[in-house]
Amino acid sequence: MSLQDQIAINAAMALVLTVVADPAREKMHLAILREAASQMVDGRPRFEPFLDAARAMVGAAQVRPGGSGADWTRATWQMKDALRAIVEWRLGEAQEKADARRAVAA
Length: 106
Prior knowledge:
Blueprint: H1 3-17, H2 23-39, H3 48-63, H4 70-105
Helix pairs in contact: 1-2, 1-4, 2-3, 3-4
């Protein structure tokens, strides 16, 4: 996972995991997400759902500043699902490495 991928993912997590609305932080996270996602490469199956969700979130924020409305809610849930898939993929990779280390040590 590239640094740009990590930046985009962290910005998206900050957006969808924020409990208390903070328009200034939301604006900052959206700007980071917009920039980072624009530099991510298309054609990577594990990241396509994330890129689609990032585009939906950026688009919903442009239509309705302040992150409200049905489009924002849909984009937020789409992003949460994309992030879940990435975390599960990374967790699986980490678990495989841990299992391999345990097998070598045994």
